[in-house]
Design brief:
Length: 373
């Protein structure tokens, strides 16, 4: 029986293939697509973060300096979170602990990346005298866009998909050889598929959701002039909402607690914390900060300038009339001395000739003649 055009389109879309290779070679150099997606996301996050940082009054290229600390911390934190929450392939029965270091095979937990990445960002901000909250607000849209791009690494690795679906955008997934990063070839000479497909492309769901969150952040920040960490809090709250329902679709191995995946519980807790933090900041630190730098830096600069204005080297504002009077009062001898006329001033005064009636009597001299006084 022939299919109608609409059914043919649905059948074609339900057969969206996954890549059969997650790794290519440029000569002897392996190019791993998972790593390329992560790198592309980092570049976008730094570019957008730098643009927003400068718009908030920050210095050019400062985001790059801080990212040098934040990115390595984030990668380590993301890997640690994944290994801890999905420990069976590494420390379970038949697991290989060495593979815990095989980052290119996938496995970066966003919560660990955010947590340790924040520690690295804090170090970088302190070294630059910048406010961590201001920095977080500036980079939040770029960070969630980096997540959107990084999820395509899961597509190349044929991993983190959901359960079976009959929807038109279902995804057929290949059985991958993690050693060669290529699809396993079946007896028929074709790339072997995971049974039970097509599956929910949860990587695609999360990627689209992250793009939507980035748009929300950019709009809300411009519309309401958010500051003091509220953009970042909004990012965390909005992302966790999407992560919760997307996580519930996934069928990969994960720890469960009270019937739910551990990441679902994490999303609930983090969401509550983000919402509370958002409204607390809105009440106690409303509006947007005047400067993205720490207030302590301004105080320190003022103290340094004040210390430099010593009596030997006073500032312009110190040379007031009151200051001069105070200085003279501290040196009374100099004050008296300065009040006495100098010889030059005396010579400039006019000589007063006394009247004739007031002239003194002549003083007799030994010779008997009078001399004029």
């Amino acid at each position: 029986m022939s299919l109608n055009p609409a059914h043919q389109v649905a059948t074609y879309l339900a057969d969206i293939p996954s890549p059969t290779r997650a790794q290519y070679h440029l000569g002897p150099i392996p190019i791993r697509m998972y790593a390329m997606c992560i790198l592309a996301g980092i570049l976008v996050a730094v570019w957008l973060g730098d643009k927003r940082w400068r718009a908030r009054g920050g210095k050019p290229q400062e985001v790059v300096d801080i990212a040098i600390w934040a990115v390595p911390f984030g990668l380590v934190g993301g890997r640690l979170y994944h290994v801890i929450t999905t420990s069976a392939p590494y420390f379970g029965k038949g697991g290989d602990p060495v593979k815990a270091f095989y980052v290119w095979q996938g496995g970066l937990g966003i919560w660990g990346a955010i947590a340790l990445g924040a520690v690295g960002a804090y170090i970088g901000c302190r070294r630059r005298g910048a406010s961590l909250l201001s920095f977080a607000d500036a980079v939040a849209p770029g960070v969630v866009l980096a997540q959107a791009m990084g999820r395509w690494g899961n597509y190349f690795n044929n991993e983190l998909y959901g359960g079976h679906t009959s929807l038109p955008w279902g995804l057929k997934v290949h059985v991958m050889d993690t050693t060669t990063q290529t699809a396993v070839i079946g007896p028929d000479g074709k790339a072997e598929l995971v049974a039970g497909g097509p599956f929910h492309p949860t990587f695609l769901y999360e990627s689209i959701w992250c793009v939507g969150v980035a748009i929300l952040l950019l709009w809300a920040d411009r519309r309401f002039k958010l500051g003091n960490g509220r953009v970042f809090a909004l990012y965390v709250a909005a992302y966790t909402v999407g992560r919760f329902w997307i996580e519930s679709l996934r069928i990969d191995d994960a720890h469960h607690f009270l019937g739910m995946r551990l990441n679902d519980w994490t999303s609930i807790i983090v969401f509550i914390g983000a919402v509370v933090g958002f409204f607390w900041l809105a009440k106690n630190r409303p509006g947007r900060e005047d400067s993205p730098y720490l207030a302590a830096e301004t105080v320190e600069s003022a103290e340094t300038a004040e210390a430099a204005e010593t009596p030997e080297n006073p500032g312009e504002e110190a040379l007031t009339e009151d200051a001069l009077v105070g200085a003279q009062a501290g040196e009374p001898e100099k004050l008296v001395k300065d009040s006495e006329p100098t010889a030059e001033e005396t010579s400039e005064e006019s000589v007063v000739i006394p009247a004739q009636d007031d002239a003194p009597d002549a003083v007799p001299t030994p010779t008997g003649k009078a001399s004029e006084s």
